[in-house]
Design brief:
Blueprint lengths: L1 H22 L5 H29 L5 H19 L2 H4 L3 H26 L7 H30 L9 H31 L7
Length: about 200
């Protein structure tokens, strides 16, 4: 019940955020649309993955992972609404770090669930690398989308020649943090339940 309620509330929250992103007057029209599309793409991606995992494998992404993804979207939105990107030099680093953490955590949770259910056959190390690489790939694609938006729609989202590589660096830092937290959780879990608990 907690999982379902939390998931529904997160989707409602993101829908409210989307409405504000598109209606309020806080930036240029094209940049507001770009921000809204980021929200839609993230939520649609989560919903699609949730649906496939539940239907094929009976696996549900834990609501905490969904909350972290939602929080990263809200941090980005707040940076635009409240103009934190211009007021605080570190805000962009924070949002990309949390974003990298969020995406890697989501795929880490999914990959671990599939691994423990015996749906994928690989070592623990490869599981971690796999989740990390998927998260970084999505982060890199997001940077490409910003660059294309600047070229095609004049959105001015890329702030200088070092903006994209710096963003990718903080995406990597957030992803690495997610793996460290996962390793810590595994050590604690194995200590409490024994090594055999990895496959149960």
């Amino acid at each position: 019940m907690t999982q379902r309620l939390a998931t529904v509330m997160l989707y409602i929250t993101q829908a409210a955020l989307l409405a504000y992103e598109l209606i309020a007057k806080y930036d240029t029209h094209v940049r507001q649309i770009a921000l809204g599309l980021t929200n839609v793409a993230a939520v649609a991606g989560v919903m699609l993955v949730q649906h496939v995992l539940r239907k094929r494998y009976g696996i549900v992404i834990h609501w905490i992972a969904l909350f972290i993804v939602s929080a990263s979207i809200w941090l980005d939105a707040m940076g635009n609404f409240l103009h934190y990107y211009g007021r605080y030099w570190w805000w962009d680093h924070l949002t990309h770090g949390i974003g990298g953490l969020a995406v890697t955590t989501a795929f880490y949770v999914v990959t671990i669930a599939l691994w423990r259910a015996g749906r994928i056959k690989m070592s623990w190390f490869v599981v971690n690398v796999y989740a990390f690489c998927i998260g970084q790939t999505l982060g890199a694609l997001y940077e490409v989308s910003e660059w294309l938006g600047d070229i095609w729609f004049n959105t001015h989202r890329v702030g200088g020649p070092f903006d994209s590589p710096r963003d990718i660096f903080f995406n990597m830092a957030g992803g690495a943090l997610a793996l460290l937290i996962g390793a810590w959780w595994r050590v604690r879990h194995r200590a409490a339940h024994g090594p055999q608990s990895d496959t149960h």
